[in-house]
Amino acid sequence: MYGRHGFRFGRGWAKMAGCEFPRMRRGDMKFLILDVLKEGPRHGYEVISELENRFRGYRPSPGSIYPTLQMLEEGGFVTGQEVDGKKVYTITESGLKLLAERGERHPEDTEGPHPAVELRESLRKLAGAVVDGARGTDAETLKRINDVVNKARKEVYSILAEA
Q1: Is 59 domain-assigned?
Q2: What is the pTM of this model?
Q3: In which order are the strands placed within the sheet that holds 78-83?
């Protein structure tokens, strides 16, 4: 994923930083989707958005959501109906039963994203601010921005030395 200013801070960044974002466990996606649909009918992108809201920093791909929705529909756990040109999915009684058999789970019970997600977002915002500040700015402002960035880098190393 490339940020607004062309910087790449995706999974590769996390790997280089020594942390990896956990993946969903095999089979969990169907239960997460059913849990979202339990709240009411939704189309695929609404399911994706809701999961992103529940698991800050994790956005499931359409390639994982739509095939799972199709599998759930074929299994009779959800129904799909065309509404305004979009396929809207609704959980069925058998979907509710499957969800109940699994047991009640909450988003916080499922392994979520690594804590570095927030750090990555902060770093992306800082990089964006620095790039914005470097455009059409006078030499004095550039020097002040550079001083702030260098001070931040030194403070990070200071924190790491304490740890």
Answers
A1: yes
A2: 0.52
A3: 42-43, 86-91, 78-83
Q: Is 39 exposed, middle or buried (0-12, 13-18, 19+ CB in 10 A)?
A: exposed
Place of tokens 């695929």: 44
In a domain, residue 8? The reply is: no
Which token pair is 97? 């039963």
d(CA 105, CA 91): 17
**pLDDT surpassing 70 at residue 73:** yes
Q: Tell me the torsion sign for CA atoms 73, 76, 78, 80.
A: positive
Structure tokens of 66?
A: 């739509």
- pLDDT band for position 93 (50/70/90)? very high
Q: Is residue 133 part of a domain?
A: no
The separation between CA 99 and the C-alpha centre of its own chain, rounded to angstroms, equals 23
- Domain count across the chain: 1
